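Sample intake sheet
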Amino acid sequence: MWIENIVLGITQGIAEWLPISSEGLITLIKIKFFSDHHFFSIIKLALFLHLGTCFAAFIYFWKDVVSLSKTLFFYNAADEENKKTLTFLIISSTISCLLGLIIILLVSKIANQMLLSGKIMTFGIGILLLITAFLQLKTRKEGFKNVRDLRKIDAVVLGFVQGFAALPGLSRSGSTIATLLLRQFDKTTSLKLSFLMSLPVVLIGNIFLGIKHFEFTFESLAGFFFSFAFGLLTIHILFKIANKINFGYFVLGFGILTIISVFI
């Protein structure tokens, strides 16, 4: 149990900053190596581990978090950029949370009623990884828009995209960054907005799905600690790597291998 939580925590800490599905990786590891096929329990664990990287992101984006918090309480005195960012986050997070909650509960109900096997779940994750790869490979190399160009329609579109990323295998960061790039935002803005979008969703998701029914043990806290520690240690370098490399081909290969593993 200790080894399981440590491995999953390290996986989350590293994978969160890359445009691959950390939730999908955690699900695959649980299915392949720890024989856990209960969809809802895996999602709750993944959400809890996301708290570790969420706190790491809070530290990394501390200035932005403080600035946006001030904007929330002193909106009229804030500058235009912070106003647009805050409006974007409120709209997108509201849509993401509602849609994500519906998707998780619906898929969990279907999985329980149909008693989905590990192979079926693995195959589904493989398909979603291919979709993630397709989105990344379709993106433009560089856009021209920045935060000042944000519109409410951008928040609505990104809210739906992040909401669907509740499905393991559909990368949250990969799909949101790809969508922002397709909407012609520059890469720096896309990366920053994508990571800021994750903070309220992870916190709210844990309140409604994770922490309320989660069993706190030394083993689970070990997973949280390693997720936080590795997330904090790797965020800067992986943030820069993700800014320079298109991971579409990697995710494509990973998706294909995941599907092939079902038939082996």
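Comment: The CA atoms of residues 37 and 54 lie 26 Å apart. The mean pLDDT is 85.
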